[in-house]
Write a structure and sequence with these properties.
Elements (H helix, E strand, L loop, with lengths): L1 E9 L4 H11 L4 E8 L5 E9 L2 H13 L3 E6 L5 E12 L5 H10 L3 E5 L3 E8 L1 H11 L4 E6 L3 E4 L2
Antiparallel strand pairs: 1-3, 1-4, 2-3, 5-7, 5-8, 5-9, 6-7
Length: about 160
């Protein structure tokens, strides 16, 4: 089962390493990890995406709550929330296929942020499923490079 976990932490050196070690020690692979400052510069929000059964993940959450620098842990399993991912994708684009790439970009409500004679860089934001579908549409053109932020999430309301 896929879990999206939001962890508010004190913005201090070593907190990320301790949390990653906690997951690794329990045999969890982190599918996605995003960390950034919140509206309070002394607090960071981590969004961690992992797969595992509910019982084991409950134990991980309890262990997270025992760490000194943890402020709050929330598993979005039973909480209405919004998830977003951001990707930058550099695609082969010449005069023969550029218009088709522009059409795909427009359809997915993404934007071209850089253009060269043989490629374009496209920025897309949305759900993980939207970004995966977009990537699959671009594959035939040849993806040169790609960078993704990982999923960020926030409870609704």
């Amino acid at each position: 089962m896929r879990h999206a976990i939001s962890v508010l932490v004190e913005n201090k050196f070593g907190v990320l390493a301790r949390i990653a070690t906690l997951f690794a020690a329990r045999g969890f692979n982190i599918d996605s990890l995003s960390v950034g400052e919140t509206e309070d510069p002394e607090v960071s929000r981590m969004t961690i995406i992992v797969r595992g059964d509910d019982r084991i993940l409950e134990q991980v959450e309890k262990q997270l709550n025992k760490l000194v620098d943890i402020i709050k842990v929330l598993d979005f399993k039973s909480t209405r929330h919004v998830e977003r991912d951001l990707a930058l994708i550099k695609v082969n684009a010449d005069k023969t296929n550029r218009s088709e790439i522009l059409q795909i970009t427009s359809t997915f409500r993404s934007k071209i942020i850089d253009v060269s004679s043989d490629s374009v860089i496209i920025e897309i934001t949305g759900s993980e499923e939207k970004i995966e579908a977009f990537i699959n549409m671009l594959r035939p053109f040849g993806i040169k490079e790609m960078s993704r932020t990982g999923i960020i999430a926030m409870a609704r309301g």
